[in-house]
Amino acid sequence: MRFELFIATRYLRAKRRQAFIGIITGISIAGVASGVASLIVALAINNGFRQDLQERLIGSTSHVSLLRIADDGIKDWQPLLERLSKQPHVVAAAPAIFEQVLISRGPRARGAVLKGMIPADERRVGDLLNSVKQGSAAELEPAPAADHNSAPMQPAGSPDSLADVHARVAAMPPIILGKDMADNLGAKVGDVVLVTSPQGELTPFGMVPKYSRFRVVGIFNSGFFDYDSSWAFTRLSDAQRLFGLGDLISVIEFKVDDIDKADILSRQLEEAAGKGFMTTNWKEQNKALFHALNMERLVTYITVGLIVFVAALNILISLIMMVMEKTKDIAVLMSMGTRTSQVRNIFIAQGVLIGVIGTVIGLLLGYAISYAGGHYHLISLSPEVYSIDYVPFAPRLKDGVWVVLVALGVSFVATLYPSWSAGKTLPAEALRYE
């Protein structure tokens, strides 16, 4: 192959009278390089957003959730939680209540999901409490029994005194709101909101809604609009009292040691819990979102890959013109004993060389841009819209391998017709008028 490669490299260095062919060859190399670099950068951005989204999703939600099929709550949950927390691959478990409520402040009101939980357990299965930006989640720690079982002591004096007002507000159960919800309600840390349960309670006057006033002790900002606009947190005991559930929970949340096997582990936990229980995991809950990301990745391959296809057409054109220009040279080589297969290999090697040079340049350029973009945060975003203030880049070696294979494969296919055409040259016909 040394002979064919030597001739191919000589043909790539065009002389003055072949400058036009040299320009087309340069354009072909630039086309392959731009296509490869574009694919590397586009896939790095896709991977960056996917990783950032997955990390924040996993940090905001539990890996596996266990609940009743009949949706009637979990009774005697302490022994069940203790038993399931000892299952293989389970890192932590936490009880929780999820209920729909209406949160209002003055004339403003928002529907919300109120989550009642035990802060110490919640921190072991999720990171949402760590995203409290204003106030503190420390006040969600379990209050003394007296706070729950008896009315708070009122200081002596007028019930309308400022001290009495502060005392009543301080005795209210604490609540943490999402940032967007707090903005819509106009609520700040220290304000009082009214939480109304749609379940209601039966009175002599019929069914009336149950409500309770809560004191805003913190505002969290997870970066997810769904959480920040419609979620609130309070203590498990306060949620149970608001909904009149007694010692009942709606779900047990689990953190496992391998998130990629959450679907398998969720089935194992479901079997260990027994009849009447079902599980869901973070993959099932966000299936539509990750399906959209995979579809976007496929579209990226197709659209940006068209650049490589156009570059392959340039390779095809430049090789066809080279064959037409080098007809006499081919005839001389064949008359001196060069085999047809060697002539074909010359032009195949020439096309593949164009592809290799363009691919190497594109890889270096693509990974350099991806590294600079990820390290120096070159492209800024609006955090209010994208929940992140820069475009994340996460280049992967696996993507580079696939891009190289595609680019070289397309470059090789583009050489087949010109090389076949060169191999059909007849020396006598080509040299007849020379």
Give your account of this protein's structure.
The protein is an alpha+beta fold. The chain is 55% helix and 19% strand. A six-stranded mixed β-barrel has the order 2-3-8-5-7-6, surrounded by four helices. Strand 2 and strand 3 form a beta hairpin. It is elongated, with a radius of gyration of 34 Å.
- Described by the principal axes of the CA atoms, the overall outline is elongated
Helix percent reads: 55-70%
* Structural class assignment: alpha+beta
Number of helices: 17
**What order do the SSEs take from the amino end to the carboxyl end, as H and E?**
HHEHEEHEHHEHEEHEHEHEHHHHHHH
Give the strand order, joined by hyphens, for the main sheet. 2-3-8-5-7-6
Task: Give the overall average pLDDT.
Answer: 86
- Point out poorly predicted stretches: 145-156
> What value does the Rg take, in angstroms?
34 Å
Quick one: biggest sheet?
Answer: 6 strands, mixed, barrel
Report the β-strand fraction as a percent range: 15-25%
How many beta-strand elements? 10
